[in-house]
Design brief:
Length: 233
């Protein structure tokens, strides 16, 4: 989670109301996605407005969009609640994400440059370190950072925007399911995915990167469903 000092500094440097809004929105979305705000938690508008140093009006705008994203729910008489994630309800979202990931390599793909390769190499090293010392929060952070690095392989903005919304709807499922799974094995699989896509980026083969990402997302979802079934037996 971004520290209070870092958040205050970012808000102070923001150029205008729109940028401050985006910082608030991104911060809240990340806290939900990292389970810093766990499912069922009620968010206090008063406390958040004080933390961000804003009135409730722009804060409510951010909360409304997060509600439209499926991350929050407004409950009359209770307030704004962080939603839970259900694997069965996310099946169609995962199916769409699989197709969209493959499109990254086909719709306005960028030719990876030295900066892109350095970005993926840094992620690969972080994944290797995570294999040595598995940590759930570090895994979640790496998952988010890797998603954003992957989406920078395309210049198709509508594809990026839709993919981002769907990603944040599903990424929390791993934090919910991992305690039931072999966490070290999942980290090793993820590290393998990052290594394979890094190699595709090194070769300048964005289309291959899309195929790899789609395959790993499909296999990951299959593993999640398998573990979910085992819990009901």
């Amino acid at each position: 989670m971004t520290s209070s000092d870092e958040l205050a500094a970012a808000l102070e440097k923001a150029n205008g109301a729109q940028e401050r809004f985006e910082i608030m929105y991104d911060t809240l979305r990340e806290r939900i996605s990292m389970s810093d705000y766990p499912p069922g938690m009620r968010l206090s508008e008063e406390a958040l407005a004080a933390e961000f140093g804003v009135s409730r009006s722009p804060l409510r705008k951010a909360l409304k969009i997060l509600e439209a994203d499926g991350l929050l729910q407004s409950v009359q008489g209770v307030g704004t609640i962080v939603t839970d994630v259900d694997l069965d309800e996310l099946t169609q979202v995962y199916q769409l994400r699989m197709e969209l990931n493959e499109l990254v390599g086909r719709l306005s793909p960028k030719h990876p440059d030295a900066t892109a390769l350095a970005r993926f190499e840094e992620l690969r090293k972080r994944a290797e370190a995570l294999c040595s010392e598995p940590d759930m929060k570090v895994f979640a952070r790496l998952n988010i950072d890797f998603f954003h690095a992957f989406m920078r392989l395309t210049d198709n903005q509508p594809l990026v925007e839709v993919s981002e919304r769907l990603f944040y709807q599903t990424c929390r499922i791993w934090l919910k399911m991992i305690p039931m799974m072999d966490f070290a094995e999942e980290v090793a699989i993820f590290a393998g995915e990052i290594a394979a896509i890094t190699e595709a980026v090194r070769l300048g083969d964005t289309e291959a990167a899309g195929h790899i990402r789609r395959a790993h997302l499909s296999m990951g979802f299959t593993r999640l469903k398998s573990h979910a079934r085992q819990q009901t037996l």
